[in-house]
Amino acid sequence: MADDLSERVYSGPASQLRRVEALLRDAGIASRHTRPRRREGVLCVALADGARARGCIERCPKLSGTLVSAEEAAWFRCYACGATLSEGVERCASCGADVGDPHGR
């Protein structure tokens, strides 16, 4: 794994996450997915691969999940250091910056 796989590019049900993960693997893009909460999980790639991964996903027909735009993915990064933020955090675990709830911004 060359980079931290923290750039969110897709959310959807487990079956779709596996399908998109295989699509990206075939394109030479490393990815990881979170365990689905409720019914959906999130697929992440390296920040440098975000645009290319989104392009691959956009060309894939009949996906029932949601493509996460670069702008939406930015809400999950600390404004001060760029570290990945979890839902509901108020301080960045990496640098200590006060980020409030990044999803309530």
- H-E order: EHEEHEH
How many helices in DSSP terms? 3
**What is the straight-line distance between the termini?**
32 Å
How many domains in all?
A: 2
Considering the chains and any ligands shown, give keywords for the structure:
Alpha-Beta Plaits; 2 domains; 3 helices; 105 residues; alpha+beta; single chain; four-stranded antiparallel β-sheet
Please tell me about this protein's structure.
The radius of gyration is 14 Å and the shape is globular. The chain has 105 residues and is of the alpha+beta class. It starts with a strand and ends in a 31-residue tail after the last helix. The chain folds into two domains: 5-74, Hypothetical protein rpa1041 (Alpha-Beta Plaits); 77-105, no CATH class. The chain contains three helices and four strands. Strands 2-3-1-4 form a four-stranded antiparallel sheet. The longest helix is centred in the first third of the chain and has 13 residues, at 14-26. The chain is 26% helix and 18% strand. The model has no long low-confidence stretch (mean pLDDT 82).
Concise description?
With 105 residues, the chain is an alpha+beta fold.
Describe the secondary structure blueprint for this structure.
Blueprint: E1 5-12, H1 14-26, E2 31-33, E3 41-46, H2 50-58, E4 66-67, H3 70-74
Antiparallel strand pairs: 1-3, 1-4, 2-3
